[in-house]
Write a structure and sequence with these properties.
heterodimer; A: alpha/beta; eight-stranded parallel beta sheet; two-stranded antiparallel sheet; B: mainly beta; Ubiquitin-like (UB roll); 1 helix; 39% strand; globular
């Protein structure tokens, strides 16, 4: 399939001050090898890749090798605050990420529960408020709770990233109604479904709901063939967006024939 | 000498070192990391004026894969 065949009305979209073509945000973790990661990211044609910060020992250079590969890709990096459990930790991590990665973008993750890695709404809102004031473009990872979404918007977030389901679970969109409600309530906000996407059809569903993009990692990196799965998600994201833009038909309660009934053969009217 | 925690490990350092001198003393050779002391970010511009104290908890973070 040639890429030029895959046209959507709005070929380009804007997020965080950047104009992009791809609506897929890809993670850089869990791949079988750095080379596989690099190839999968290239095949996905994603223009945003998520990265993280972790403790580095003296003399250790593996982190720099990773960062060299990412820099070579020449795409936008979205550092995360994964592993943080308080607003204070997340703010410090964001400040450190801004210096290391040279971007004011931050994927704000403040985990409130270790079992399902559910974000802590109170600490997330607290951190978002401070980070927005400090000039960060905050991409907050949140649940599909409408009130939390409202609070994040109240403190200045222009992007929201509600989960489809818990991180790394691959359960897809477990509460489509809530995701739909957030879309309806915030028509002008940039909305990304983050976490829980397990298969390409989940990406299609998220995009068909009118979400502006999807962010995923495990579904690609843990596939038997991450490179081809990256390609599958690329097409799924485009298909979902095309479907949304084309306007889905209304569901009907009863069957309705698609073939014309006028002129149906072998039908005789006796009167 | 003072004792500090560097990335979760106890290290001994000379008293009165600033952040730049601490990095050198700890033998960090590669660039591309950021420093926090007691969970507060220390920007590069403040390395010279920020002195390490006994009992400080220091985090030195570098890029890794993330989702």
């Amino acid at each position: 399939m040639k890429n030029e065949e895959l046209r959507v009305k709005s070929d380009e979209w804007e997020i965080g001050g950047k104009t992009l073509k791809s609506r897929m945000l890809i993670g850089s973790a869990l791949y079988p090898s750095p080379a596989n990661m690099e190839e999968a990211i290239k095949e996905s044609e994603a223009q945003i890749v998520t990265v993280a910060l972790r403790r580095q020992s003296a003399g250790e250079s593996s982190g720099n090798n990773f960062w060299d590969i990412i820099k070579e890709l020449n795409i936008n990096v979205l550092p995360n605050t994964a592993g943080c459990h308080s607003a204070k930790e997340a703010i410090t991590t964001a400040q450190m990420a801004r210096e290391v990665f040279g971007t004011n973008w931050i994927k704000l993750e403040v985990i409130g529960d270790q079992y399902n890695l559910q974000p802590d709404p109170f600490e997330t809102v607290k951190a978002a408020e401070i980070l927005v004031k400090e000039g960060f473009e905050v991409f907050p990872y949140t649940t599909d709770d409408l009130v939390v979404a409202k609070r994040l918007v109240d403190v200045g977030c222009k992007i929201l990233m509600p989960w489809g389901s818990p991180i790394g679970s691959g359960q897809g969109l477990i509460n489509k109604n809530n995701l739909k409600t957030i879309r309806k309530q915030f028509p002008d906000l940039k909305l990304i479904v983050d976490a829980g996407i397990g298969k390409p059809s989940d990406a299609v569903e998220a995009m068909q709901l009118g979400y502006d993009g999807i962010l995923l990692n495990s579904a690609i990196a843990l596939a038997q063939d991450p490179v081809n799965m990256a390609k599958a998600f690329k097409y799924a994201t485009i298909a979902g967006r095309l479907g949304y833009e084309a306007g889905l038909m209304q569901k009907r309660e009863f069957a309705s024939p698609s073939t014309p009934t006028v002129g149906t053969p072998f039908w005789h009217q006796f009167s | 000498m003072i004792k500090v925690s560097v990335n979760g490990k106890i290290k001994e350092l000379q008293k009165g070192l600033n952040v730049s001198q601490m990095i050198e003393a700890l033998n960090y050779k590669t660039k591309g990391f950021a420093v926090a002391i007691n969970t507060t970010f220390v920007p590069i511009a403040k390395y010279e004026e920020t002195i390490i104290h006994d009992g400080d908890t220091i985090d030195i973070l570098a890029p890794v894969q993330g989702g």
